[in-house]
Automatic annotation (TrEMBL):
Keywords: Signal
InterPro entries: PBP/GOBP, PBP_GOBP_sf
Name used for this protein in its record: Odorant-binding protein OBP15
MF terms in GO: odorant binding
Residues annotated as transmembrane: none
Length: 153
């Protein structure tokens, strides 16, 4: 029971703006994606089993776009794990802007970024060799772009 509650809280904190099911379906149709094949909750739960992440890290990521301790590899590997499990990232570290758009628009409710796909394509151009670092920098790039755009509006 505690584990399920923890995972639910992690989901809500890491995704911050949860929309109704109708909104998610509408957004998924708008971006041409199908959210039904993205098991975000399962990915968060499974990845938390392997890469335990402190909720403070997720809060910091949502609020500032980065982790409080960027030398800690575990949260970065958690991000990689989640991205790979929902097929936003491939095992070889390539990112799918279409799936990124569907995931961010449908789950996080990102509205500040009007050009998620374009931003995701730019953020996907990564030079890091470590898959965990690469995934973290990808998410960080997207989060910082979202925060920057929301501050402008």
């Amino acid at each position: 029971m505690y584990k399920q509650v923890f995972v639910s809280v992690v989901l809500l904190l890491s995704l911050s703006l949860v929309q109704s099911a109708e909104d998610k379906d509408e957004v998924a149709r708008d971006v041409g994606g199908d959210m039904a094949d993205m098991d975000i909750m399962g990915a968060l739960s499974d990845c938390n089993e392997t890469f335990r992440i402190d909720m403070a890290y997720l809060l910091a990521l949502n609020e500032s776009g980065s982790f409080p301790d960027e030398t800690d590899r575990t949260p970065k590997c958690y991000v990689r794990c989640v991205l790979e499990m929902v097929d936003v990232a491939s095992a070889d570290g390539q990112y799918d802007p279409d799936r990124t758009e569907a995931a961010l628009m449908g789950i996080r409710g990102v509205r500040a970024l009007s050009n998620v796909k374009e931003t995701a394509s730019k953020c996907a151009d990564r030079s890091e060799t470590c898959k965990c670092e690469r995934s973290y920098q990808y998410i960080k790039c997207l989060m910082e772009a979202e925060i920057k755009m929301s501050e402008k509006s």
